[in-house]
Design brief:
Radius of gyration: 20 Å
Oligomer: single chain
Helix content: over 70%
Distance between the termini: 43 Å
Structural class: mainly alpha
Strand content: under 5%
């Protein structure tokens, strides 16, 4: 029973760190550009959409819950170790100002426990890690392409210059 309470306390502290890391990543560009004027509004928007997103994260829960190591390995002490390791890692990263994916620290902690118990689904882990490599490269490429296209669009059509009424559309697009 005591270990369960410790696991809940770690999970709550972890959730706080997820909020710190996720809020910065999600709203940093919108707040930094002035599209969202106050930190409070940025936090409210993140809270609303993080809650909605959590309701839709069932597939990730399946992968994290039993796709990396066998569910038979997972019990309260192991979960406490996994949560503690992931929480500590994310907390240190937050204190250092380093953006870090919550999924990466959780998967890393699960893999650590899986190695300790010599039970890892390596095929699933390789798929996850390959996405960690591919997705940032694709995001970089998309941002580069869009970054090159936007100035030419702005030159062609004055509507997209970011002045007056059209600025509201651009701000809305950034926040969304």
């Amino acid at each position: 029973m005591t270990l369960t309470i410790v696991a809940f306390a770690i999970a709550l502290f972890f959730a706080m760190n997820i909020g710190a890391s996720g809020t910065a990543a999600a709203m940093g560009p919108a707040y930094g550009s002035g599209a969202i004027k106050t930190k409070r509004m940025a936090m409210i928007l993140v809270a609303i959409f993080a809650f909605i997103g959590a309701l839709a994260g069932g597939e990730v829960v399946k992968t994290i819950g039993g796709g990396i190591i066998p569910p038979s390995v997972v019990d309260v002490p192991v979960v406490t170790i996994i949560l503690g390791a992931a929480c500590l890692t994310l907390f240190i990263a937050n204190m250092l100002g380093i953006p870090l994916s919550t999924s990466e620290v959780v998967v890393g902690s699960i893999v650590g426990a899986g190695i300790a118990f010599q039970a890892i689904f390596l095929d699933k882990l390789l798929i996850i890690v390959s996405f960690w490599v591919i997705v940032p490269i694709v995001a970089f490429g998309l941002a580069l392409i869009v970054g090159k296209i936007i100035p030419s669009i702005q030159r062609k059509w004055q509507f997209f210059t970011g002045r007056g009424k059209s600025r509201k559309y651009l701000v809305l697009l950034l926040v969304v």
